[in-house]
TrEMBL record:
PANTHER family: GLYCOSYLTRANSFERASE, SPORE COAT PROTEIN SA. Keywords: Glycosyltransferase, Transferase. Pfam families: Glyco_transf_4, Glycos_transf_1. One of its GO terms (molecular function) is glycosyltransferase activity. The keyword Transferase applies. Residues 82-188 form the Glycosyltransferase subfamily 4-like N-terminal domain. This is Glycosyl transferase family 1. Residues 204-348 form the Glycosyl transferase family domain. It comes from Subtercola boreus.
Amino acid sequence: MTHPGSAQLSGRTILFAQPSSELYGSDRVLLESVEAVLHAGARAVVALPQHGPLEAALTAAGATVEICATPVLTKSGLSARGMLALLSTGARGFRAGRSLLSRVRPDAVYVNTVTIPLWIGLARLAGIPVLAHIHEAEGSAARPIALALNFPLSFATRLIANSEYSVSVLAQSFPRLARRTSVVYNGVPGPGSPRSARESLDGGLRILFVGRLSRRKGALVAVEALGALRDRGIAASLDIVGAPVPGVHDYENELGARIRELGLVDHVQLRGFRSDIWPSLENADVAVVPSLLDEPFGNTAVEALLAARPVVVSDTSGLREAAGEYLSSRSVTPGDPQALAEALAAIGREWESVRVDASLDRLRAEQKHSPAEYRGTIALLVSEIAAAPGAIRPRPTALPDAQLTTNKV
């Protein structure tokens, strides 16, 4: 599907700034955004802070990758010690970013997430329009932290967010910014040839957790829930696909220790990070997303639905928005292993109907998170701000309702 604004990107250069080089949620969405402008005829240059698996994926898509020092804002980085480190990396990032802008001479800069505000400042100082893509929704963050993280968005030319929930959190600190932020639901590519879940749960329920091994993602809750299921005499196993932040293994070690304490060594497999999650989903009966804290959205939940697998998510924040409308999804209290175990047991009891619901949900998820629709929308938005300097920029064009909504906060 070709959108009317996409042709305006022919011959343009778009610079993307990204805070990480992995292949988790926002990294994968960035890849889709890059492919959007490439398909629309633009040249895409992506600034990454370090080498990583995202680099190879971007290069394979046809983008040019530049490794560029970039200070990344975190809540811990807003402490006194963190600010000192931020100033040091900020000085290097300022020089490196300014040099890259001078060499690339982009028509627009696409800043992915609120954690790299330096790129907004550098681009605007150079007179280059900026599209800022909001992936964060720290509803529980203290007001000073929320103000510090979101204030740089004031200088962006255009704002988009991945969920209504993200916009509602932005409204708590900057109502005006929220009112001019549009929601663009993530485009999520599904498996090439999705297969329905197996007809019979012979051998027990196969549970899958996909995500970063960190406390907020709740892998330990999934382990505890598995223990609760087995205590009830329900046969089940758990695959954990994901890895910790490089160099930070405390939670991973805690997870391994708890698996041993509960006697689950033979029933839990730690698979590590996998860039291709579809084989894991195909082998699973049900996916779990037991996050403990606010999530702006839930790409892992959508991926499970696209694979025609039921999913159990924490009843919170953007996860409600991602999975709440589907027949085969279930929501449970965050941090409650017993509630998660009961939801999984219920799915096992109702397997025949849940399996059918999951197949129907796949079709709905494919429509809502169509990569083609997402790419067309992103290309159109970028083309609207990437007019030549001094030219009259095109007026905003009506966008497809299925993909984008203008928030009325």
